[in-house]
């Protein structure tokens, strides 16, 4: 997927005017938010589990090099070939080379955000290999030639009618309108591909150092088809996904589906370790794991390292008022919402994703719901500081911040200016006490009104109260 | 290719280690020792209160209801064919199953069910498997791959029947891993957790059962 994050403002404006998208986003929001709240309320130790999970992720990251080497050692012991890729290009080259060396013509894929990140499908297709996405949401988007707009529910922005249109064109069958029947039709279309693919490509939610294991979590069972039926299984995953033990997986899987969609567990979880053994009638003859860096190591050892704890549940975007209103495509790259506002600028360069750390209300909800306690608003604030220091924001904004900072450090001047602003605001608000337009802040007032100030500043009220407390109403 | 791969490995590890204030590409002996010691502790996280069960069987059955796995209990393994026959009749399914070898010797003729003693293929409508153990906390079946226990039998047919022993019901996934370590040493090629039939909600968040895997999962509990 090409980076379009520099166009966030323009994209967001378009998305706000897209009536179908707005309806689809509203439907999704309730299900994600309410579902999570219910699932979390069932567990009395939720906070303790979160704390433990954050600590175990930190522990793995503190010795990331050693855990990766330990994973590699155990994976090789079980017959897996481990590859390392520094960049997106390297990752794709390795996958294409595995396919070429084995005469692969068709690949079935289960959902993998890393493969979206590195443009794997495009590269495989250029090499003459047919690629079939098998997660229903990803399959819909493959037909629509669109990137995912959500990391857990990739086609959340599409309506039933839009999907029906895509299926009618692709399956060459009469148009269906019943969602269950549409799913059945896709199942039948994909069944054949599962059975005839030479290579299956999956991501991995975590990789386990102890056993050299990679693993998939799905509800559809498509990852199980992809990792069981073809003669080659290739895993593409990020270097930060390594966890020490099976017990760590047990902890994290209590958090992941609950945070993502409010389920107690995914319907199908599979831990895959190596290749088929003697006498096995199923399983791949070759297993490859591609460990991808592509920007991840830039977080290591910095004040932003906690971002690498992320377990890709999507709770931060589900709860983000910005995401809820503009959807994932506005963010312009693979990872939308608050997690994307941190990942994208670091992965692709802050100069290519300038608006993302600013596409937040800082309401803090993303940090509240994050199952591994990533302080997302703090990380976005650090990126904002970096943008300011590197002069990557417009001069008007930088001038305004400097002017504010100048005044804030001079109490008398600040008092004068705020008094002026409060009086001016009160007058603008008029009898309605609502400001429809504030000169210079038209971005704020275009879509909403600002409640007008009462006309006196906090400092004035505070001083008065100190002088004559009996005169001030509580 | 191989040369490039080795250098990418070195470059990535060197970069990580430099960022951590360490030198070179390879972790040193003390560091590896620390990491292996952490792994060897197999420290479990806090368990939710609802995972400590007074009655694991009741909890297991309640969680099966929640994830959409149906369940029945019979008095012995010999009663399995009759329950299979009943289930297939009740769901209007053909009286034929592809079964794991361990169940081939049961008296299927009396129950009127035809059994194919081989891994399921895409044309089979019903697969019959056993399982390594079951997990009460989430109503989960744990299947391990092996020559005698092919995973496809639980995956390809539209109906997955699973025989599970109550004596091998554990409370949590942590317990299942402890059992796995005790009995098998380490995980087999595929360690497969099934919690209800295959489902999707990718079109307008509407839940549909039977995405790519089974439409029905039915557990037959034996003592």
From TrEMBL, chain A:
It holds the Pfam family LutB_C. One of its GO terms (molecular function) is 4 iron, 4 sulfur cluster binding. InterPro entries: 4Fe4S_Fe-S-bd (IPR017896), 4Fe4S_Fe_S_CS (IPR017900), FTHF_cligase-like_sf (IPR024185), Helical_ferredxn (IPR009051), LUD_dom (IPR003741), LutB/LldF (IPR004452), LutB_C (IPR024569), NagB/RpiA_transferase-like (IPR037171). The keyword Iron-sulfur applies. Keywords: 4Fe-4S, Electron transport, Iron, Iron-sulfur, Metal-binding, Repeat, Transport. Residues 301-331 form the 4Fe-4S ferredoxin-type domain. The keyword Transcription regulation does not apply. The gene is lutB. It comes from Usitatibacter palustris. GO terms for biological process: lactate metabolic process. This is Lactate utilization protein B.
